Amino acid sequence: MPPKEEKNNIKLSIPRLLSVDALRGFDMFWIMQGKEVLVTFIILIFGRIPPWLQYQLSHPEWEGFSAWDMIMPLFLFITGITIPFSMNKYILGKGRHTNFYTRLIRRVILLWILGMIAQGNLLSFDLSKLHLFSNTLQAIAIGYMIASLVCLYIPLRFHVCITLGLLLIYWIWMMFIPLPGVGIGILQPEQNWAMYIDKLLLGQFRDGTHYTWILSSLGFSATVMLGVHAGYTIHTIQSRWKTFWALVGMGILCLCLGKLWSLHFPIIKHIWSSSMVLWSGGWSYLLLALFYLIMEIGGLITWAFPFTVIGSNAIIAYMGAPFIKEGFHWLIGNRMPPIILHHIIPALVLIITWTILYLLYRKKWFLRV
C-alpha cells in the first residue's frame, strides 16, 4: 500500500478518458480488417502499394520495427494505462485484498482461455494442436498480473526502477549468460535464450513460430508498466497541457533510450527485446499524447466516435472479427474470385463487426474481463 504522502497525489474520483477508449479502438481497428480495407483503398486510388508502405504494413522477418508491429505493444501499453484507474480503491486502501485477488485471478484465467481460443487451437479439442502460450491476450494476462501487484504493493516512487529492472534482467539473461551449446549473446530465430526456455517448458505445446513467450514475459510486464506510468501521469498532473508535454517527453525519452540500447540488444519484436519495449513504448506515449491533445485538450471527439465504439468493447472486437472472417471463408471457401476474398470480404467483416459493437455500445453493454 503506498505511503500517505503518495496517496495524497492520487485522485479518489477519476473520470473516464475518451482518448484512451479511442486509442484502444484505433489499435483494434487494424486487426478488424482495417489494414486490408486500407490496402484496397490505396490500390483503387494509386494502383499499387508503395514499397515503403508494404514494409510498414507487414512484420519484419527478424530485426527491425514497422508500424504493423505496434498493434500488440500498444494493446499492452493501454492495459497498463487503465490499471491506476481500475485499481484506485485498492491502492488507496479502500477495497479488500481478497476482492482484488479474486478479480485478478479471474481476469488472468479468462484472458488466458480467450488467448488459447484465439490462437491456441483450444476449440479444436485436439491435444496435438494445442498451444499453451501463443497469444497477445496471454501476454496481457501476465503483464497485467505483474503490474497490478507492483501497483498494489510497491510505492509509486519505485515504479520506474521496477520497469527498468525488468528490462535489465531480460537484457542480462539474453546477452550475457551463455546459451547451452551455442555461446553468449546469440540472437537467432532458433538460437536464443527465450526460444530455448519455450522449447524446454512448452515442448509440444509451443506454437511453432519464432515468437517467444515465457522469458519474454519480463518484456511484456515492462510494456504494461510503461502504460502504468502514463496512467499515473494523466491523473496526478492537474494541468492538461503539462500532462500532454509530460507524455511527449516520456515518449521521446523512450525512443532515444530504445535506439541507444538497440546498438547492443537489437529491436526484435519476436523475442520482445528490451530495446523493442522502449522503442514501441515511445511511440505509444506519443500516440497517447496525440489523442489526448485532440480530444481532452482540444475537445474534438466526434471524429473518434467509430474508434470509441471499438475501444469500449475491445475484447469482443479482438475475438469477433477473426470469427466473422472465418465464417465467411467457411461459407464460400475458395469458390469466389480473389477480388472478393481479398478485398470485399475484409470490408464486410469490418462493417459487420463494427455494427455489432455499435449496437452493444448503444445498449451500454460492455464486456469487462
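the 2nd protein, sequnce then structure:
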Amino acid sequence: MYDLLSGLKIIEVSSFVASPTAGLYCAQLGAEVVRVDHKAGGLDYDRYMMTREGRSLSWENLNRAKKSVALDLQVPEGRELLAELVCKTGQMITNLPLNSFLSHEKLAEGRPDLVSVRIMGWHDGRQAMDFTVNAASGYPLMNGPADWDPATAPPVNQVLPAWDFITGAYCAFAMLAGLRHRDQTGEGVEMRVPLGDVAIGTMANAGAMAEMLYRGGDRERLGNAIWGSFGRDFLSRDGKRFMVAALTPKQWAALVDAFGVGEELAAIETRLGVSFAQSEHNRFVNRDELFALFQRAADRFDYAELAVRLTKAGATFERYRTMFEAANDPVLVSDNPLFGPSPANPSGFAYPATRSFANLPGHEPGDPRPAPYLGEHSEEVLAERLGLSSGAIARLIDRGIVATSDKEAR
C-alpha cells in the first residue's frame, strides 16, 4: 500500500470484476475508495467461492482496502443519499446502466465538474460479460491443439476473465486522466468504457485484426506454441512439463546452450540454408523440426538438472504448476515483496494478501489492508461527507435506509 493518491476520494458503485478492480487499484495506491452497495449486498456479494462462514473470497479480495457503505437502494431516499455522496465527493466509478439514477447527466446537475467512469457491456448498449465478449473476439477459436479439425473443433475459453481485469486497470487510468483534465480546465468529464471495446480494441492493438485482414483468413491453432517466435512446452525425463521462450537472439543462444543442441542445430541450418540465431521468422516457420530437436534433448535430463542449466545460461523458462502449487510456492508468494501479512479478513481466513503491483524503491509499501464488512463505514462516511448528525443517521438506520456492519450477521 502506497500513499501516492492520498487525498483522492472516489465513490464506487460496482459489482462483479471490472468495476471493483478499478477501485481496488486506486485504493492500493492510497485513494480513499468508498464502495456503496444495496444494504443486502451487491450482485457479487455472495459470489463463488464462499467460505463455510458464508463469506465470498472473490468479494473479499476485489474490495480490499476500501470502505463500505450500505444503503437501501430500492427506495428513493437511499438513492438520493447515494447521489448526494457522489456529488459531494466529485469522483465516481460504476457499472450501473447509463440511464440509471446515477447517470452522469443527472448527477452533473448538482456537480458540474463531476468526473465519472462508467463500465458498459457493448458500445451500443447491449449487455456483455467477459466470456461473451471473449467469444466475439475470436481468441477461443485460436486456442487448442494444432491437429484439431478447424471445421469441427470447439472453442477453448480462457479461465482468467482477462477482459474484466484489463478493463478495470484501464478504468483506473481513465479516472486519473479525467482528474488531470479537470485540474487543467475545471471541467467535469464522463468516460464510458465498454467491456466489448476493450476486448476488440486490444485485439486490434495487438496487430491481430490487421493480420487477419491482411491474410484474408484465420490463423491456425498452434497448441502451446508461441505465435511468430520460438516457444512451447516441453517434458523433462522425469515427467516435469515446462515452458520456454526465445524471442531475442540472446534468449535463443541461451536455450541452445542449455539444451546442448548446437551441433545438431548447425546441421539443420546447413540443410535448410537458413540461420536461426537472428531470425524469429526462421525459428517460427521451422518450429516443428526445432520442437522435435529440443524435446529429444529434454528427454536426456531430469527437470532439476535442466533448470540449473537453463538458469546458468540465462534462458527464459518456467515450470508448469497447478494453481495450488503456485499459491504455496515460496519464490512466487512467501518470499515475494508483493505479498504482505494477512490482515483481519472478514472471512476469518488468514492468507497472503497483495500490495500494489507497482514497487517503489525507497518507499515503504505498508501492509495490505482488509476488505470491509458490508456497511462497516456507513455511519462514518455519512457523517464526514454529508455532515449528517448522529441522530439523523440513527433515524435512517432505524428506518432501514442505512445499514451498518454485517460482521455479526453471518
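The two ends are 29 Å apart (CA to CA). The first strand starts at residue 9 and ends at 13.
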